Amino acid sequence: MFFLEFFQGLYTFTITEPDIVIGRLVLVALGLLFIYLSYKKVLEALIMLPLGLGMIAVNAGLMVMEASQVGGLLMTEAGPVGNLFVNPMAGNLNELMYFLQIDFLQPIYTFMFSNGLIACLVFMGIGAITDIDILLARPGMSLFLAVFAELGTIATLPIAMGMGLLPNEAAAIALVGGADGPMVLYGSLMMAKDLFVPITVVAYVYLGICYAGFPFLARIIPKRLRMIEMDWRTIPQVPAGAKFAFCIATFTLLAFLFPVATPLFASFFLGLAVKEAGITRFVEFLSGPLLYGATLFLGFTLGALLGVDIILNPKVLLLLALGVIALLLSGLGGIAGGLIFGKITKKPFNPLLGLAAVSCVPTTAKVAQKCALQVNKKAMILPFAMGPCVAGVITTAIITGVYISGLKFLGG
Amino acid sequence: MEFHPIVFALIAYGVAAVIAACVALIVRVIAAIVQRKKPPADEGAPPSPEGG
Are residues A219 and A356 in the same domain? Predict the structure, then answer.
């Protein structure tokens, strides 16, 4: 058996409990599955491929640490078991300084994750690539649908509390219904730091699955309504000055209302304002190196945080179920909003736009377009779908602000 | 003061809806201001030298 000690990843299988061994193997297998599905473009490769690789690395690459190394993942008779990636549980300053010098992802975690910076960087990039023309041309429609598509974010909170989660944990998992990865990351860091890894992973996995699952949900809408054509040539031109003024005015309003969520608002509207001001060098930086660099490290570090101790937490199964409930309800809410708006408006209106309001820019807009094209090759609704999609980001940010600042009214 | 989770969720929904309406109002106001500042169409302008 001593021979195995040369290969510590394998050796740690012999010194840990069977449930740890099984958990590690399950997570390595899950990581491989994520990589495969990313390669096949079933899941969002930008986030899920580095995440899968991080999961394999951290669960296969466990090693027995020296006795002086405290705070390892698990304690065994042979000594603490840990890795050289990241230790999110580093408590005091000495421990933290130690891991900052040893674990190569620890600086990313300490300086970019635990303060929500990485979510803000991603949001700056998203702001810089977001087109708000249709939101400004059709604000009533966009925001009406977006409010309906928040059903999951709202209804999951009491459901989660009914299932035994604490108010802060329930609010954090309910944000999955908003279908915004960075928002869930930021919200869970602010409200339920202990569960932010599983909640964020649940959010990103489900958002990846959205692309494949929402078309089935869309079949609730009668085919004759899904095939309605909308004339995108009727969308009025919005002056650049109006778009810029909108960014600044809306940001100022939201900053007054929800200071706790202002880092998120500021990041998103900074990206938007830079784009609308036509500062192309900043736009290129935010929408290219910054967005993709932050997304790469977000995925990889999240994967590395998904160690075996996470999956053994009994709350994870509950989070998996609640994540599905949240997204399903938001999808149903969006569809209901689309059907209601279709009845109200006198213009031709495709209710699939309600599905686009589940925000996740621009995935759900693309899903709505895909569903429309399946039944009518001439139904071009993507330009309209971007309005509710962007409005969904704004309503989710508002609800995140309400949850963070209102937790005290839930006893959280 | 503590609210029942369902009441809190409904309040949060209401707040989100009201603020969304405010955002829509901001858009309308900006659109109205931009429309007012827009110069009138130059109907009597002489044709350009290129004829276009």
Answer: yes
Q: Does the structure show a pLDDT above 90 at A4?
A: no
- Assess whether A343 and A228 both reside in one domain: yes
CA-CA distance, A403 to A177, in Å (whole number)? 13
Of B26, B31, B34, the CB nearest to A250: B26
- Would you say residue A89 lies in a domain? no
**CB–CB contacts below 8 A, A to B:** 89
Report the gap between the CA of A47 and the closest CA in chain B (Å): 29
Decide if A256 touches B, using CB distance below 8 A. Answer: no
Q: How many domains is chain A built from?
A: 2
Cα dihedral sign for B32, B33, B36, B41? negative
CB contact under 8 A, B27 and A136: yes
Q: What does the pLDDT look like over A43-52, one tens digit per residue?
A: 888 888 999 9
Whether A410 sits inside 8 A of B28 (CB atoms) is no
Higher per-residue pLDDT: A195 or A284: A284
Spatial contact of A145 and A338, defined as CB atoms under 8 Å apart:
yes
* Predicted local distance difference test score (pLDDT) of residue B49: 44
d(CA A59, nearest CA chain B) in Å: 38
User: Which is nearest to A359 in space by CA: A329, A386, A400, A392?
Assistant: A392
Cis peptide before A362 (omega within 30 of 0): yes
Residue A242 amino acid letter: A
Residue A92 covered by a domain? no
| Distance in angstroms (rounded) separating the CA atoms of residues A257 and A264 | 13
Most confident of A11-15, A148-152, A343-347, B30-34: A148-152
Q: Do A340 and A381 belong to one domain?
A: yes
CB A370 within 8 A of CB A402: no
Angle at A389 between CA B23 and CA A43, to 5 degrees: 150
Q: Within an 8 Å CB–CB cutoff, is residue A404 touching chain B?
A: no
Same domain, A298 and A349: yes
